[in-house]
């Protein structure tokens, strides 16, 4: 009965979403204030209905109600309860419900935190979001209904894919989806501004915190996915250039360009058309990601659907969104002014160059991701694009991007003086040179690529340290925007150092080991002590004990326990790697098959993975930076039109200019 | 300070240069990294490249898996032709006799496929599309043969 109520609530929410997509917008066109004012309550009502449906499905999962098809296919009565809850988004239907639910969260947040935004803009923004929501609700109700009943009910569920029974799965999809769906806010703001013909600094300022929050979630979601693949798939890889990963990387690259471009639009009134285009692209790529991942054209742990109707629906929806928004753009963009003049050496130049490079990288990734699909669709054969393609194309594009992060953060708007930037480049330059030489000497191997990677990471990191230290020394207040930017840049620097380190210095070895055998990687000795059988709640497992000693010392520094799990409801074994994380490296062991012989032996995968913890630390720093910047006080200050906040600049030379949160300049006087 | 026209010129110029550089980079990298897929029948007919890497897909023939130390030898079949494959290392969890498999590697002098990578994806009931395509093609040829009098 409850399940039917959930289904009913979802149908109601579709009706509300359609109304939300039409009525407020009609109000804008007819200048009817009453119709416009329905936007907020409709958004909240729609979300409540979806939230109710979502809760109903969660209850069905917790109660192991196997009379629901979706529950019976993705859960099992033996499943621990957190996984029962997470199993809701372990399949196609539920993950779409999560998508719409999170869209409701974003819509409601916009509805609640837009008190100072003009009513007609609220109406437009929430209408656009209502239309998106209608599309997805229609999709769920027509092709992917999670509330369908199974008669007679199954006596036991088929269980969640063992790969997905993991704490990483509990949070990875919601975080990633928050990022994907959050791009709809930037998109809705851009479309609303296009409709209104008001592509002004107020629009950019409104979009910025929302886009930053979405970017932060996206960053966190991608980081979690990478971390999950690293420890759960048992191969020790953290990025495979898998189409599914590319699908999340592309919106991230564009969103990164977007948050920087929005800054220029807000501060200088420039790049408006470009910013709008990026906002459209970021959301379209999020939709494309959903399409690629959920339509079944790709094959991976993420691809649940095999029903072609679903793929076609998303493709049509995607075409509608992209087509209509680009048409609107083509119609409105020519009226957009070019904005303020800018010098060749200015912050605008660096930001523009980087956003062009990021977009180019996105296109290169898009090509590599879609090409095999297009060739296959045209029946021209089956092929794949190997990871080397992505590495070869992506890395050279990122080198100038990372290099320009430093002067970009230092240069002033409009026209920067070389003499003012230079003092802040000298220290990072020499510090990075010494650091990269020292680090690669210490790691025991040097080549140009390693040096460049370490140098770039250190260049950005030292520049961030110096800029923070400089400001602290001057006794200047540091705004959330400023600290957030520096932290996020520092985080990227740490990731760059980590990637360079792990790519060049990892040691992977597949070995055959009997009890008492030992293998040595770097200066670590791994000794197999024994293998025994253990039981988990819904699986049996073989668990090995591997003692690790370091160098000459006899004392065991760490005991690792990799497992091979056999889930009761599945014939598929699962490799659970055991990882010891230190500051500088991970020691990674996974257990393979039993090898036949006189004495039992096992195949084992033993990895020495330097710098891997740096990847995760870097992502966390970026997330922290994103949060700090999103919650900068100035976004909460009321917006006055023509507001040139941060006017009282205290720039390097202490002369006044429109310096924004450029560095080294004190930030907002609003605090 | 640049005028509007100069600004536009620099902007367009930069974009064009970047695009040209990337197109060159991409095409170059693309050509050397495309990995084509062949069915066991195509390999048998000699359509597969002799010296460069490619992928084969099909079913792991039941009872064909032999393990010597860390090296696994097995036969990939599309029920029409067979290719002997060897792989050194740990096989993925989902590798099983009688199940679909896709392997990437090269042919050696004797026509033996030496795999550098064995791809078995993440679901026990899942058949890699390449493997499925190989099986389907072979099945269709067989059906066509039996229909023909």
List the chains of the largest interface with their residue counts. Answer: A-B, 52 and 44 residues
H/E series of chain A: HHHHHHHHHHHHHEHHHHHEEEEEEEEEEH
* Computed Rg of chain B: 22 Å
Query: Which CATH first-tier class of the largest domain in chain B would you pick?
Result: Mainly Beta
Query: Helix- and strand-based class of chain A?
Result: alpha+beta
Low-confidence parts of chain A, pLDDT < 50 over ≥5 residues?
299-305, 640-671
What is the CATH T-level topology of the largest domain in chain B? OB fold (Dihydrolipoamide Acetyltransferase, E2P)
Taking the alpha carbons of the first and last residues of chain B, their distance comes to 83 Å
Number of domains of chain B: 2
Name given to the CATH architecture of the domain at 1-165 in chain A: Up-down Bundle
Query: What name is given to the CATH topology of the domain at 1-165 in chain A?
Result: Four Helix Bundle (Hemerythrin (Met), subunit A)
Shape verdict of chain B: elongated
- Residue share in helices of chain B? 25-40%
Order of helices and strands of chain B: HEHEEEEEEH
- What assembly state would you assign to the polypeptide chains in this entry? heterodimer
Rounded mean pLDDT of chain A is: 87
